[in-house]
Amino acid sequence: MLAHHYSEADLVDRALDYWRKAAEHASANLAHAEAIGHIGRAMGLISAMPDGLARDEWELAFLTLVGPAHMAVEGWESPTAHATYDRARLLADRLGRMGDIFRSLWGLWLGAHSTGRHVQARRLLDEIYEVLEKTGEPEYVVQAHHAAGSQMHAEGNLRRAKHCIDQCLSAYRIDTHGNLAMTYGAHDPGCCSLGMAASTLRMLGYPDQAKEASLKALSLGRQLASRPESRTRAGTGSPCASC
User: How many domains does the chain have?
Assistant: First the structure.
């Protein structure tokens, strides 16, 4: 309501700030269609702004919110999400925002990976690791290895997949990374990686270890669901067919 009234009053910066808060609140409560609606109103205001730094910054802020929402509603292969991440990457490059470059690449990777475009997905994965090498940000460590484990699993490189999965799980901390689900493909990297570990271990001939990993994935999902501050989806469903 505040966003609406600030919009009607032509107080654009305040309106955009409240549209962003409304979208974040909706996404946190899994009301993705509502979040997309809020972001659409914001984008209408942004499109009327003059070209320049302020417009680029506001547009990028909302693109990084709406990409995951489109994936949650329409699936990882969403053409709208793909176009969103393409545009976000362009703006992030222009503004020099490493975090937004990483998240845009990750979204583009997930779209390519989930539709079996493995050559394109591998190229995007390489770019993800290039960003990781420049920053070493813990969030990126988890999500780069999360993507790599899924990619190697899909390509049938099971021992390499297990190595990447182990790296992801070694870096994963529920208090730090348990709130990233709605930023990265609407599922938790720890749950996904444990699910992939179970599938990988089963195919490598270790059924007992596979069962243990499956039980850990279920346990982690329950922990995430019981956290009072967490309303995001834990989701053991992974970008590959492992879970």
Answer: 2
Strand, helix or coil at 115? coil
CATH label of the domain that carries residue 38: 1.25.40.10
Rg (CA), the chain: 19
Structure tokens at 183: 């930023």
| Structure letter (DSSP) for residue 77 | T
Q: What is the residue type of 91? A: L
What's the pTM value of the predicted model, to 2 decimals? Answer: 0.88
What pLDDT digit, counting tens, does each position of 65-100 carry? 999 999 999 998 899 999 999 999 999 999 999 999
Q: Which of 99, 128, 157 is the last residue of a domain?
A: 128
Q: Do 179 and 232 contact (CB within 8 A), yes or no?
A: yes
**Distances in whole angstroms, Cα of residue 217 to Cα of each of 111, 158, 165, 174, 232:** 24, 19, 13, 12, 16
Assign 29 to helix, strand or coil: coil
C-alpha closest to that of 242 among 216, 209, 210: 210
- Domain enclosing residue 216, as ranges: 136-243
pLDDT for 225 equals 83
